[in-house]
Amino acid sequence: MKNSLDNKILLALDGSDYALNVVHYVCDFKPLHRKSIILFHVIGKFPELYGDFETPSQCSDLPKGIKVWEKSNQDKIQLYMNKAKQMLVESGIPEEAIRIKIQHKTKEIALDIINEAKKGYDALLIGRKGMSVYNEILVGGVATKIIDKLSAVPVLMIGTISNNKQILIAFDGSEKSFSAVGFTGSMAGGGDYKVNLLHVIRGRPEYQISLPILYLPIGYSKYIKKEVKSLFKKAKNILISKGFGPQQITAEIISDKFSRSVTIVREARKGNYGTIVIGRKGHSKVGEFLLGQVTQKIIRLISNRAVWII
Q: I need a labelling partner for 99 at 20 to 30 A (CA). Which of 78, 192, 204, 230 fits?
């Protein structure tokens, strides 16, 4: 199990109150306290409203206004980042394990965050959305670009519900879902977290005859369940090797459901899971989770949970 402060995570904060949910999540998620934490902010070059002027000559006060804005913005962001750091320190994280990094935007905020995340971080944490005078991280905006383009680093999109130590892993038996299992073990193993491995088999008996192309043959479902149970055993062993006790792990197969993503979200709500973990892309004989399909639907369907995209 990793526990060296040489391992690090990146918290991308946009200066909004909403983005502080990311900080609260880290404060509550004690296993993250054994990593180095970098608080990262990208400052835009000037407010978007200045783009309303075709040329600077149309407003003689424009250069002065930009300088005033830049100074005011930098001061506010520094106070904001200091506040975030203090929250982490008060939660028990050593002050020397936390670093603030503020930089000016180069091309795009999303690309700047992606480029920073590629510098040896174990994970990138972002708010599901953040709206402020300065920057904006929104599903459909910066956050979506990051998820689409950053495949080498796990992205943890944080919602409003605090960490409640209940983790649901959407498991399809693919290589990527096993990566999700291993990552979850590395992040939460050794604590008092509970994990449920969930596999969903799509199929509605009343539709399997009229729309056979959309569903598994009825007789094939038994074979799939047998294979998934075998894969569950392998996944449980990975979690146990990372510090989970057998009593902390459950596994569940749900069949005859019209939508995998809707079923996963419903189970997360019903079971009061604060965190959903899913592989970025997976192909296997027993299912498929693809960003843009199941993963993207889960992100859009549920807004208040943390969604880990591995």
A: 192
